[in-house]
Design brief:
alpha+beta; 5-stranded antiparallel beta sheet; disordered N terminus
Length: 258
Amino acid sequence: MPKTRTIAFLLAAAATSLAAHSALAETQSCRSMEYERSAYAICEVDLRKHTVRLYWKRSDGTPYAYLSALPRTLEGDVGRLLFATNAGMFDPALKPVGLYVEQGRELVHVNTLSGHGNFHLKPNGVFFIFGDKAAVAETGAFLKQRPRPDLATQSGPMLVMNGRVHPRFDKRSTSLKARNGVGVRPDGKVLFAISQGEVSFDAFARLFRDALKCPNALFLDGGSASNLYAPTLNRLGNIVSLGPMLAVFERNRDASQQ
C-alpha cells in the first residue's frame, strides 16, 4: 500500500475510533468513584440530552416493583434506558409516602405530617423537574413556590440545604447503611449517587456538598431499598420490591439539536 494511502487509512481509522469513543462516553452516564475511602456509583443527568421519568404502576394498576421491569425504550424522541434507581420511600403496599407527580399528574399529595423514621427527619424535601430544569427544595419551600412540575418525588431527610449539611446529622454516628440520593448542581446537572457499602448520613451528605458540588441534595432511601439498574456498571437492579422508581433515557440526538 503506498505511503500516502497508508497515512490516510490510519487517519480515517483514528477518527472513527475517536468518534466511537466519544459516542460511548456520552451514553455512559454512570461511573464509579471513591470519596473519603467509601465507594459510590454516580450517575449524571443533563436534561438537554436525557429524559427523566417516574414509574410506580403499570396501566393495569399493578406496581412495576422491579427496576428491571421498566421500559427499555420510549417512543418518539426518546431512546434507550441508561439507568434507573429507587425514587423515594413507600409503604407496604408500595405506595409513595409523600408527593408523587408523574408526567404532570399528581397521584399522591404532599406529606407534611410529623412522625418517625427518615422521611420525617425534617426538613425533608422534594426533587422535581419542570420543563428543562430540575431542583431539590425543602418541602416548605416547595409549597411556597407552588410550581407545576412535570415530575416530583418527596422524600427525606434533606441531605444538603443551601450548602449546609442537615443539622441533625452527627459526624460520629455509628449508624451505617447503604444509601442513595439526588442533588442538583448550579449548572443544572442532576447527580444521583448510591453507596457501594454502608455509610453515615453525614458522610453521604458531604459527598454531595463537597465532592459533587450540589448545594441542595435529598436522601431517597437506604438499606435494601437502595438499588440501581445500570448495565454499564453491571448493576442489574433490586431483589426486594420497590415503590416509586426514576428512569433516565437518552434523547434522540437529532431531536435534541432542533
